[in-house]
Amino acid sequence: MCVAVILLSPLALSIGPAAATAGPALLTSQASYTVSVRANASTYYASSPIGIQGTVSPVPPSGTSAFVQVLNSSRSVVQVSSDPLNAGGEFWDNFTAGGTGWANGTFTVNATWAPSLSGPVLNATTSFVYVSSSAPPFSTYTVTFTESGLPSGRTWSVTFNGTPETSATGEITFAAVVNGTYSYTVGSVSGYTASPSTGSVTVPTMLSISVTFSSAGSAASTPWWVWAVAAVVVAVVSVGIVAVLARRGKSPPSRSEAAAPTGAGSPTTASGSSSGPGK
């Protein structure tokens, strides 16, 4: 049994269209990228799982992969893999510690990535110390993701430390997880937005993650009862307006009102002069 200590001091190199330089991403008229890599725990034992996780940012076009090498203190390669980037620009390399070439000393993790076959190539490294010793008993845990907001039976998924799981129930679990920090990504569901959609989990401090799905679009996310109340209010107001307008309207004139003279004063003769006593 052996011990491996990860020194979490990742080095990220940025590269522009012409050449690679250390430090933040170059601000150019073309896209510049940064690659980083880290291990998910500080101590490993022989036959225990090791998780290497890296990120390329900004998210590059789909279809590219990162090349990961682990070298011992003699610079001999003890682990190598080509890991495709996911939709978030992340890549994982999961393997088991121990075996040929795993002698005491400082090990180096080297991750490289290029936006195309013609380059340029980005490189990031981290290192850990591997010590041969008997591994003490260690605990494992179960990490549970619980969703809310999806219709019953709707399928959803989570990728945890590079391992995807899908479910049509409200829970997704990952068993036999040892101490460490792990990243996760919630898969997209058509018509819904997940919160959180990405993040990290430190085991055993955090073993339960709640994911809330909201319907896409403001109208779809408004509760049904709000629209029902609004419809009732509109109907009541409409009836009230009609009643007020009806009261203000004139009724047809009565028969006596229709026969009454339109002018004031004494009746006139046919010639238009007033009738009265003569002089």
Instruction: Please summarize the sheet with the most strands.
Output: 10 strands, antiparallel
Into how many domains do the coordinates divide?
A: 2
Structural class, by secondary structure, is mainly beta
CATH architecture of the largest domain: Sandwich
Order of helical and strand elements: EEEEEEEEEEEEEEEEEEHHH
Compute the separation of the termini in Å: 148 Å
**What's the CATH topology label of the largest domain?**
Immunoglobulin-like
| CA gyration radius, whole angstroms | 39 Å
Q: Number of DSSP helices?
A: 3
Helix content: 10-25%
Per DSSP E runs of 2 or more residues, the count of β-strands stands at 18
**CATH class membership of the largest domain:** Mainly Beta
Question: Spans with pLDDT under 50 lasting ≥5 residues?
Answer: 1-30, 263-279
Q: Overall 3D geometry?
A: elongated
Describe the protein's topology.
Blueprint: E1 2-15, E2 20-22, E3 33-39, E4 43-45, E5 49-57, E6 65-71, E7 77-84, E8 90-96, E9 105-113, E10 122-132, E11 141-148, E12 156-160, E13 163-167, E14 171-177, E15 180-186, E16 192-195, E17 198-203, E18 208-215, H1 218-221, H2 224-248, H3 255-259
Structure characterization notes:
By secondary structure, the protein is mainly beta. The chain folds into two domains: 2-132, Immunoglobulin-like; 141-217, Immunoglobulin-like (Sandwich). It contains three helices and 18 strands. The protein has helices spanning 218-221, 224-248, 255-259; strands at 2-15, 20-22, 33-39, 43-45, 49-57, 65-71, 77-84, 90-96, 105-113, 122-132, 141-148, 156-160, 163-167, 171-177, 180-186, 192-195, 198-203, 208-215. Strands 1, 2, 3, 4, 5, 6, 7, 8, 9 and 10 form a ten-stranded antiparallel beta sheet that branches. It has a four-stranded mixed beta sheet with strand order 14-11-18-16. Strands 13-12-15-17 form a four-stranded antiparallel beta sheet, with no helix packed on it. Strand 12 (156-160) and strand 13 form a beta hairpin. The longest helix is centred in the C-terminal third of the chain and has 25 residues, at 224-248. The termini are far apart. The model is unreliable at 1-30 and 263-279 (pLDDT under 50).
